[in-house]
Write a structure and sequence with these properties.
Helix content is 33%, strand content 18%. The protein has a two-stranded antiparallel ribbon with strand order 1-2. The protein is elongated.
Length: 57
């Protein structure tokens, strides 16, 4: 799976009609909680992080 990216999206299931459509398409009981998207994406760059000392006191 090298090179695959994933992202979690919840917008499609925040709308009741969309959530119901997905539930029916999956053919399962219950209601979907999140959608996972898999694919090849554009490489990103890491963001800066603060040190532990800067975050915890």
């Amino acid at each position: 799976m090298a090179g695959l990216d994933t992202s979690m999206i919840s917008q499609p299931i925040e709308v009741p009609a969309g959530r119901e459509m997905l539930r029916r398409a999956l053919g399962r009981g219950g209601y979907p909680q999140i959608v996972l998207r898999f694919g090849h994406g554009t490489p990103g760059h890491p963001t800066g992080r603060r040190t532990v000392d800067q975050v915890l006191s």
